[in-house]
Design goal:
Blueprint: E1 7-13, E2 28-31, E3 35-39, E4 44-49, E5 55-60, E6 67-74, E7 77-83, E8 88-93, E9 99-104, H1 106-109, E10 122-129, E11 132-143, E12 146-157, E13 162-168, E14 171-178, E15 181-188, E16 197-201, E17 207-211, E18 221-227, E19 230-235, E20 240-245, E21 250-255, E22 260-262, E23 265-277, E24 280-290, E25 305-309, E26 315-320, E27 329-331, E28 334-339, E29 352-357, E30 361-367, E31 371-378, E32 381-387, E33 389-390, E34 397-398, E35 401-406
Antiparallel strand pairs: 1-35, 2-3, 3-4, 4-5, 6-7, 7-8, 8-9, 10-11, 11-12, 12-13, 14-15, 15-16, 16-17, 18-19, 19-20, 20-21, 22-23, 23-24, 24-25, 25-26, 27-28, 28-29, 29-30, 31-32, 32-35, 33-34
Length: 413
C-alpha cells in the first residue's frame, strides 16, 4: 500500500474554535465514487470533485443550531445526519445535490430537554448496506445526577420508507453492518436495556443475540466491528478488546488500557474504536483518566495508541495517535486515524492524521496546525477535516477549518 504525499486543502469557513476538552462531534466527511462530501459545524453540506476539489454543490440544514456529524455513501447518493433540534437524516444525490428524502429522528426520540449541544437529538452513526440505510440516533436527558436516553436504530429503504425500527433506553455510540447482521454498540446503559452490544437481523430488526462485558456501572461498549463469523468489540466497561463468536460467546480478549498504577495514581483509558478485516483487528484507545479524580498527574502508558492484533489475539504492533481519535476511516488494508486534542498535555505538534496498514502499522502521517476531527477513505483517497483550536492555558488559536484530501486514486491504476 502506498499513499501519495501531495495534500490538497479547501477552506470550510470560520467556526468557533475547539477548546481543550472535546465538546462532541460537529463535522463529518465521506469519500464517494465521484465527490468528497464535508458536513460542517454551521450546518452546510458541501460536495467537492474528488479529483479537482472544485465545489460541485452545496446544501444547508434548516436550523441555525444544526451541525452535520455523520455521513456515508449510499449507492449513487450520500446520506448525512445532524446534531440538531430535529436530528435529521438527509439523503442527497451525490452528483447533483438534489435532496431525495429526509427524516427527523426527533419524531421518535423526542425534542431536546435544553437547547444546549449535549441535549440535542444526535445521529451518531450511518451505514449503508446493499439497498438499505441503517441509522442510529439518540437523545440525552439529565435530572440531577440521573441520566437517561431515548434511542432508535432505523432501517430505511432506498426511497426513504422505513423497513423497521429498534428502540431502547440506552445510548448508541456506533453501528456496523455485514451480511445479514446489524451490530449496535451502546456506551451507556442507565435504564432497562443492559447490554453493551446488540446484534439485529437486517431483514426485520429482531435481536439475534446480545453481549455485555459484565462490568459495574453504566459504561459498556465503545465500538463494534463485525467479522464473517462474529464481532470485535472495544469495551468501555473493562478497558479490554474482545473477539466474539457469532452468538456472543467470547473467543479471546486482550488488555488495552486496563487500570495501571503510575506513581500514586491508578489510571485507565477507554478503548474507543475497533476495525476488523480478515479476522484481524485494529483497536484505538483514548484519554487517560484517574480512578480517584477527574484530573491526573500522569498518563496511562497505553493512552492514544493504535494496536494491531492477529486473528488469534496476538499483538503485532502498536503506534501513537498523538491525540484523541473521534472516529476511523477504513478501506481495504488501510485505516486512517485522526489526532485531535490531547487535553492533558496540549501539545500542538501532535495534531494531524495517520494512515496505518492493518498488518504492518504506520504508513504515513500528515501534520496539521489544528485538530483533526473527522476522516474517511475510499479507493486510496483519504479525506480529513481540520478544526481550529484554542487551549485554555495558552490562548493561541491554531489551525483553520479545512478539508484535507490526499492519496492516489486506485480506481485508475
Amino acid at each position: 500500500m502506498s499513499d501519495a504525499l501531495e495534500r490538497r486543502t479547501v477552506d470550510l469557513g470560520d467556526p468557533t474554535p475547539a477548546r481543550s476538552r472535546h465538546a462532541g462531534q460537529r463535522s463529518t466527511v465521506a469519500v464517494t465514487d465521484e465527490v468528497v462530501v464535508a458536513g460542517t459545524a454551521s450546518g452546510d453540506i458541501r460536495a467537492y470533485d474528488r479529483t479537482t476539489l472544485e465545489e460541485r454543490w452545496r446544501a444547508s440544514t434548516e436550523r441555525e443550531t444544526a451541525s452535520v456529524v455523520s455521513a456515508t455513501p449510499f449507492g449513487e447518493s450520500v446520506a448525512v445526519g445532524e446534531r440538531s433540534p430535529d436530528g435529521v437524516v438527509r439523503v442527497y444525490d451525490a452528483g447533483t445535490g438534489r435532496l431525495r428524502w429526509r427524516y427527523a429522528a426527533a419524531t421518535d426520540v423526542g425534542a431536546p430537554q435544553k437547547p444546549s449541544r449535549f441535549f440535542l437529538p444526535y445521529v451518531v452513526g450511518i451505514r449503508s448496506h446493499r439497498d438499505r440505510l441503517y441509522v442510529a440516533a439518540r437523545r440525552y436527558e439529565r435530572d440531577g445526577e440521573a441520566r437517561s436516553f431515548e434511542s432508535v436504530v432505523y432501517a430505511f429503504e432506498d426511497d426513504g420508507d422505513l423497513a423497521w425500527t429498534h428502540r431502547t433506553d440506552a445510548s448508541p455510540i456506533s453501528l456496523d453492518v455485514r451480511d445479514e447482521r446489524v451490530a449496535v454498540a451502546y456506551n451507556r446503559c442507565p435504564g432497562e436495556q443492559q447490554h453493551g452490544l446488540v446484534v439485529l437481523d437486517t431483514a426485520d430488526g429482531t435481536v439475534r443475540y446480545d453481549w455485555d462485558p459484565g462490568s459495574e456501572g453504566q459504561r459498556r461498549v465503545g465500538d463494534v466491528s463485525l467479522a464473517s463469523d462474529g464481532a470485535f468489540v472495544a469495551s468501555h466497561g473493562d478497558y479490554r478488546g474482545y473477539r466474539l463468536r457469532d452468538g456472543g460467546t467470547e473467543r479471546w480478549s486482550v488488555e488495552l488500557a486496563t487500570p495501571t498504577e503510575v506513581g500514586d495514581e491508578t489510571l485507565y483509558a477507554y478503548p474507543n474504536h475497533v476495525h476488523a478485516a480478515d479476522g484481524e483487528a485494529l483497536f484505538v484507545t483514548g484519554n487517560t483518566y484517574a480512578e480517584e479524580s477527574r484530573e491526573s498527574e500522569s498518563l496511562h502508558p497505553n493512552e492514544h495508541t493504535v494496536f494491531g492484533y492477529s486473528s488469534d489475539g496476538e499483538r503485532r504492533w502498536s503506534a501513537p495517535t498523538g491525540g484523541f481519535a473521534a472516529e476511523l476511516g477504513a478501506d481495504g488494508d488501510a485505516v486512517v486515524v485522526p489526532g485531535a486534542q490531547h487535553f492533558r498535555v496540549r501539545d500542538a505538534s501532535s495534531h494531524g492524521f495517520s494512515v496505518f496498514d492493518r498488518d504492518d502499522g504506520l504508513v504515513t502521517r500528515f501534520e496539521t496546525d489544528g485538530v483533526v476531527t473527522a476522516v474517511s477513505r475510499e479507493s486510496g483517497v483519504t479525506a480529513a477535516v481540520e478544526e481550529p483550536v484554542v487551549y485554555h492555558d495558552d490562548g493561541t488559536e491554531r489551525g483553520s477549518y479545512r478539508l484535507h484530501v490526499t492519496g492516489s486514486d486506485e480506481r485508475v491504476r
